[in-house]
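Sync notes, pocket subgroup
Present: LS, DG
LS reminded everyone that the earlier model was apo-only. Rerun requested with pyridoxal-5'-phosphate included. Inputs:
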Amino acid sequence: MPAAITLAQRVAQIAPSPTLAINAKAKQLKAAGVDVLNFSVGEPDFPTPPHICAAGKEAIDKGHTRYTAANGIVELREAVCARYRSRLDLNYDPEQIQISCGGKQGLYNIFQALINPGDEVLIPAPYWVSYPPMVELAGGVPVIVPLREENNFDLHVDDLLQRAGSKTKVLVLNSPSNPTGSILSEGALKAVAKLARERGWLIVSDDIYEDIVYTKGTIPHILRVDPGLQEQTILSNGVSKSYSMTGWRIGWCAGPLAVLKAMNKIQSQSVSNPVAVSQYAALTALTGPQDFPQTMLEAFLPRRDFFIQALTGIKGVTCVEPMGAFYVFPNFSAYYGRSFQGKTIDSSVALADYFLDEAQVATVPGAAFGADDFIRFSFATSLDIIKAGMGRIEQALAALK
Ligand SMILES: *Cc1c(COP(=O)(O)O)cnc(C)c1O
């Protein structure tokens, strides 16, 4: 018998990504022949556009199959700079850009580069599942700031102030948000900008859903509201959502040179560089025709509208209308305390389990996002499946005593 293996303490602190775990369970049930309707998916249900795939194939044929610079090929970093010039009217030097293995790794690099043990990071909740564990893996302390459903999940500066302190170093923004689909208002961002200036906070702005927006015109952004914050803001983004390229694993960050240099050290000692072939495909995504996000939006919009109508038609359920991304985040807490066959449904995890076991509908419990009253449904799936799924949800809820 070998001696028991002792694992690092940092591993015990965190759990595997719950969204990936639920998706895996749904796929497993499906493979076993169960007719599961899957609303747990966190990626667009479109293939990568053909011209981008062609660029990936061409990259292989041209021999772009070796290591690149740790921070990514300069052409792609320049394309990212051009994007920020046109979208935010801000100048970045290509040295201020890091290409990473997905937006997720870029965010991981940010926290590794910035956080010392005990540093606090303000994270508004409902939050994307990975922010708190990433902060913890860096030795930091996630400090959760509740966003209120009655306020359309906008950020309230008093809620922020109540939790901020002398150890606060970073504030994370994610607009449009996963899971709520809410967009932070200009007023909220102005208040945030004022505070960040007064207290010297760094801002991490995760803009991964910036192209998936159901409102007209440009959306408020911290650096549109206050471009002077460029030197204390790190932007995180990527091609996964805008161009349906989740499997290619390309993201990027932009920010102050010193932070980016620190992030490059970490990247060079961990993954070396993002996949060369994928970087060339991403270059075509950023520099080629830009009509793809609109194609997705046209498919997403009727699905979103159906979801909202069906959900708000159920007694006791409330649902804030998502203004971006491809999720609805309804509140089912009116059903907590009811039971099925003697088993009490008392939490989002219990309700999501019930939906999966009794209705064969896979969803993500709000607890995974720090908001236990809610359940996340992705509408990156067909309208037919959404209609069938909502029928099953209504029946399942009606069966609760
Ligand atoms: C999908 C997602 C990301 C990053 O995805 P990658 O595939 O790693 O680029 C980052 N933030 C949020 C909120 C997301 O939903």
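DG: DSSP finds 14 helices and 14 strands in the chain.
LS: The mean pLDDT is 96.
Action: DG to write up.
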